[in-house]
Every structure is written in structure tokens, then in C-alpha cells.
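name: query_chain
kind: protein
chains: 1
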Amino acid sequence: MMKLSLLIFYKEYQTFLGELREKGMVHIHENTERTAEDTDLQAKLMLIRRTGEMITRMQSRNDVEQVEKVKVDDEHLLDYLEGLYSRQDQIEQQLAGLEKDHAAYRPWGKFSREMIQKLETAGWEFHFFSVPEQKYQPEWEEMYDAVIISEMMGQKYFVTVTPAGTSVNLEADPYLFPQATAEELAKQITALREESVNIGKELDAVSQDAIERLKKYRLKITEVADKIKVEDAAQHLIDEKVIALEGWVPVERETEMRSFLETKDVYFEFTRPTPEDDVPVQLKNNAYSKLFEPVTEMFALPQYRELDLTPFLAPFFMLFFGMCMGDGGYGLIIWLACFIIGRKASPSVKGYLVLGQYLGIMTVIVGLLTGSFFGIALDSVEWPWLAGVKSLFLTEANYGKYLGGYNPMMIIAVAVGIIQILYGMCLNAARLTKQFGFKYAVSTLGWVVAIILLGVLIGLPMLKVVIPEGLKYVLYALLGLSALTIYFYNSPGKGIFSNFGSGLWGTYNMATGLLGDTLSYIRLFAIGLTGSILGGVFNTLAFQLTDGLPFIVKFIAVFLILLVGHSINFGLCMISSFVHPMRLTFVEFYKNAGFEGGGKQYAPFRKKVND
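structure:
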């Protein structure tokens, strides 16, 4: 990025601002204190947030064939839709109260209040009671002409009929009815339900039109908010006759911006950013790595002077997803669904679908390597065409005897984890070199070399591989050299004792942290194995539970069990296959790579709505 400083004469400021927005290249440096105090801006930001929430709510509406236009102008569309949703919420609250009142009549069945009023006029009184069954006393029937109306959930509901003025004192709870009759309550409930359904139908019918108009309206308000931010960022100099602005322009567009400014009556200056500058970030990756930028953005953008880890995490994330999904059949579904949908998808979602295709392909590869396809363990089935390849599947039965009884996928998961951790540490060394100089990265590289050497010196003998004595001494010498950098050169410029103390503390953190980080990668194997086993369980249930049924009935039953079972398993695997790779990326990999994050997205001041 190049820093752009501008001085504009106040009479030409608004005109120049419009031209700058049309150009759409300059990220204006924001004055956070002013924007936080600007009530007009805050109101616009709140309106943008409300509009976004309404778009999300409208997108969840059911698709309908009939598409209607909303008969409200853009300025009042949001209030109109919020009013409809608010009315639905009010109806829900009213229904809750009315249904509770209506339920009060349920134990008493149907009766006429008018008839009771006539009997009361004739000199009789009616009292309604409820009492637990065990506390009901039969003598009340003789004393007060009590009549049991119903018995529900351990309660007796009864009514007494006595001459007017008779005192009725019972150890029972008097039953008070709502003011409205049951018929009146039923009519109100029906009317409110119909109103709610009609509101829902209206929202469904206008949803497509409303979404399109709300998106345009949000862009329009965003333009206004951006302009206010720019005005808040402006500094008024020389009795407010001159206005100063600062912004950022990508290096590759400096020449174009310079040519534009040379035609305007403004003062401008391009300078390189200093370490104190808060420079916006614009990620630049190739077509493959760009697909994984949403993963990076979910956590945080790198700072301007940090390495963008997107291209480095991309292959690992894809591999981790495939290992967690673990089933070639599920991978085929993912690839096929993303491929079909992606052919007619809009550009805004096409990248996600292409990413889905890559993840599906990797899942197919892992599934074929491990011999898992729709829950079928391919190494255990007696299919003649698989006879020649069954011994190649990466299963414990095939390779466990060579790996001390361990499943090869567990070994691979740990090995991949160690590789990513060491890879992250190398990237951290590159970051330190870029930001502070190579001497600050020497200790980190020392740890990388030490871990590799310890793995060779300890691991190879465990695998019964003999290391030649000469080579062994060379490795010990390199290990000693690494130890010197770790304990005596971890903080360049500080004293020997300070370095040694830091080295001891670093050793403790590395020993505990490296073990925990490495063990986290075993979940890649565990999650993939669980999905494959659960898929196999549904296969077994489908055929064992239907054994003996007529062919047609069995076919339908097997199909339904497989469909429901594998749908559940597929959904669980999808969740795990996204969550755990992101955890490994954002915790283990980012930590060892020294990722700090906190970068601000490059967002040029530009026109968002076409006239």
C-alpha cells in the first residue's frame, strides 16, 4: 500500500469527493473518535444493521411461485416489513394468553353461561371447584349437591348447586373463569391465527422483491455512511479554507491514481507506510489459495506487515477435511452437489462451491485410500473385482503388524500434525526475519532443527533402523549447535543469563505445548473412523432389521433406513469436518506460526449503487 495525503480547497471539496468516489481506489483513513461521536453516522450504521437482519429473515421465507411487488417505497420498506413481523410477534403473545384462558374451560366441557345466569336469577347458586382426587369428599354431594364434571391429571373438577345465600365452605380451590366465554375465546384465537397466516403469506409472496430492494437500499445507505466517515476523517486547516485527507492506495494502482490527481487542482503526496501507520490489508492469492480466504477471514486478517497464511493453510485444511469426512461416498456427494449447483450459481457463491468441489475430491481420495465407501469397509467384502486391491487399503488389518498394532491413519494424522507444526514454526521464523531481522529468527529455527534431529535420533532406532556411528556424531553436533541458539541466542541484545532463563522457560513451553498440539491431530483419525463406523452401523441395521420381509417391503424399509441413517451421519460428519480443521488451523497452526492478526480490510471509498 502507498499512503496518499491530499489537500483540497474547501469550495472544490464536495466535487472532488464525488470524483474520488467514482474512481473507487482510495481507502480513506478513518477518524475513529469522530465516527464514534457522530450520531448521524451511528444512526445510518444502525439502519444498515437492521436492513441486513431483515434481509436474513426474508431469505428464510419459503419460496413461492407467486412473486408480488411490495407496495411501499424504498424509504418505508424496512419499517413496513418490521411492522409485519412485529404484528406477528404480538399475535403470538396474544395467542399464548388466549389459549391459556381457553384451556381453563377444558375440564368443564361445554356449558351455557346464559342458562346458569337464568338459574341464579331463579334463586340457585353455582360454585366451581377443583381438588386433588384423594382430598375429594363424597359427602359434599349430599351437603351441596356437588356434581363431578371431569377428572384430569389427578384433579377432580366439580360444581356445587345450592340455594342462594347458602354458605359453601370446602377444602377445595375455587375455579375462576376468564371474562370471555369459551366460544368468544375460540373465535378470537381463530381470527388471530388467520391474521398471522395471512401476514406469513404476504411476506412469502413479496420476499424476493423485498430482498432485492433491501439489498439496493442497504448499498445506498452504506454509500451515505461512507461519505459521512470521509467527512469525519477530513481535517480543516487555515481557517477551514483547506481540507486535508489521508488514505491508502494499492501499489499497483499508484500510477493510475497519480495520473488522475494530476488533472485535478489538489495537492497530493505519495509516501511509503511507516511502522506506526494502521495500513489496510488486501489479500492477494492465486486462484486456488483464494478459495480459502473465507477461512482466513473467519478468524482475522493478518496485519499489514505479517505473512498471509492463506496459501500455507490451504492444502492442510483440504487434507484435514478429507480425513475427518473419511468416506469416499460422502465425498462424491459433496463434489457432485457443488458441481451441479455451481453451474448456475451466482458469482458471489461460486467460489464457495468450487471450494466444496476440492474438499469433496480430497474426501474421495481419503475414502478410497482407507477403503470406506458409504460406510462399506471395502477390505472386508467378498467382491471379486476388489480382490487385487484389498491388501492396499490403509487399514490396521493390512499395516498394523508393521506399525506396532497401530492404525496407519492414526500414524499419518500424527505425522501430518508434526509436519504442520514445524511448517508453522518455519513461517514464524520467516515472519520474524521480515519484521525484525534474521537474528531474531535463529532461535526458532534452532527449535525446528532440534525437533527434527530428536525425531531422527529417537524414532529411527524405535523402527529398528541403525544409524551409522559417524552420522550419529554429526547429528549430535548439530543438536548441540541448535541447543546453543535456543538457550543463548533467543533474545538478541540481552545478557547471557536472561537468554538462558528465557531458553529454559521456552523449553518447558515447547515440551508441554508440542505434546498437546500433536495429540490434537489424532482427532483427525478418530473423527474419520467414527463416521465410517457409524455409516457401517446403519448399513447393518438396514439389512438385519429387514431380514425375512417380502422383497418390496424390504426394499422400501432398507431404502428409508439407509436414507435417514446416512443423512444423519453425513450431517454430523460435515459439522466435524469443518469445525476441527478450523480449530487445528486457528489454534495449533496459527500459534506456532506466530500469527497475530487484527488487520483491517482494504475498503476503498467508491460508488456502490449505479444510477
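note: Residues 183 and 360 are 59 Å apart (CA to CA).
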